[in-house]
Design a protein that fits this description.
The chain is an all-alpha fold and about 140 residues long. The chain has helices at about 15-25, 30-40, 45-50, 55-65, 70-90, 95-100, 110-115, 120-135.
Length: about 140
């Protein structure tokens, strides 16, 4: 009897740009976002806000195990990518979430989560992380 290996989630493959792009184009499964949220400690309301979907719409999609629209999937994949990038520096999910919610002078008093709402903002978060690793920014 063959046992099926579960398909890797988007978060588990977040650094495979080809696989991530394909999943986003096909419609990222909302359950991948749910699993990511549970793993790293984001609430359902936080996830809905972070990927810019009304909470009730997000809840309906979760209940129906639906797929996200391309622009929603892109935001979710960006959040996963930047979170994973930061976690390499901050080690634990809790430390990483704490940093993501801290207002940073280098970001004009915004939190990394607020700043990462756009792709250029997410790239800046990655640059800040690199500067922290190099001892340039606190």
């Amino acid at each position: 009897m063959k046992t099926r290996k579960p398909k890797a989630t988007t978060y588990e493959q977040i650094h495979d740009n080809h696989a991530t792009a394909q999943r986003v184009e096909e419609g990222l499964p909302v359950m991948d976002v749910v699993k990511f949220g549970k793993q790293v400690g984001f609430t359902t309301d936080e996830l809905a806000k972070l990927i810019n979907i009304p909470a009730r719409t997000y809840a309906r999609r979760v209940a129906g195990r639906a797929r996200l629209k391309v622009h929603e999937g892109e935001r979710a994949a960006r959040l996963m990518r930047v979170f994973d990038y930061a976690k390499r520096l901050f080690v634990t999910d809790e430390n990483t979430r704490g940093w993501f919610n801290a207002k940073l002078i280098v970001l004009g008093g915004k939190t990394p989560l607020e700043y990462a709402q756009t792709e250029p903002g997410a790239r800046e978060i990655e640059a800040v992380i690199e500067r922290i690793e190099d001892g340039v920014v606190q």
